[in-house]
Write a structure and sequence with these properties.
Elements lengths: L9 H9 L2 E9 L4 H20 L4 E4 L7 E8 L2 H12 L2 H13 L2 E9 L10
Antiparallel strand pairs: 1-3, 1-4, 2-3
């Protein structure tokens, strides 16, 4: 195996450090129940989640297209930051109450999660 002598410049290293990790989540909610789902989240989940993750970059539901879709995006410094903050949230008793309410509601039909990084020409700020 050939070893490379390439070493990133200080400028390249700083740019790499500035890259954020975006947790892009798409949920499909049972048709006709978006407002009910949002009410459950607002009452039981919002405070606990925002306590650990901060305010989301985006929290949106479909007005057209893929109806019954809910998207939210959470911004982290890196994978370690995401793991640390999500682990703290998962053991929070208030978050556990929300998860129980969510399961009992039977409104969540599907979840997709993508971890994304911004393109260099469209940087994001935390």
């Amino acid at each position: 195996m050939r070893q490379s002598n390439y070493r990133p410049s200080r400028n390249e290293a700083l740019k790499r450090e500035a890259i954020l990790l975006v947790d892009h989540r798409t949920y499909r909610i049972k048709p006709g129940h978006m407002n009910t789902h949002l009410a459950i989240y607002e009452e039981f989940g919002l405070k606990a989640q925002w306590k650990h993750l901060g305010a989301p970059h985006a929290y949106m539901f479909a007005e057209s297209g893929a109806m019954n879709s809910l998207v939210h995006q959470w911004v982290y410094e890196d994978a370690a930051d995401r793991a640390k903050r999500r682990a703290a949230m998962m053991v929070d008793p208030d978050w556990q109450v929300y998860l129980k309410k969510l399961v009992e509601s039977e409104l969540l039909m599907d979840q997709q999660t993508s971890l994304m990084v911004p393109a260099k020409f469209a940087p994001m700020k935390k």
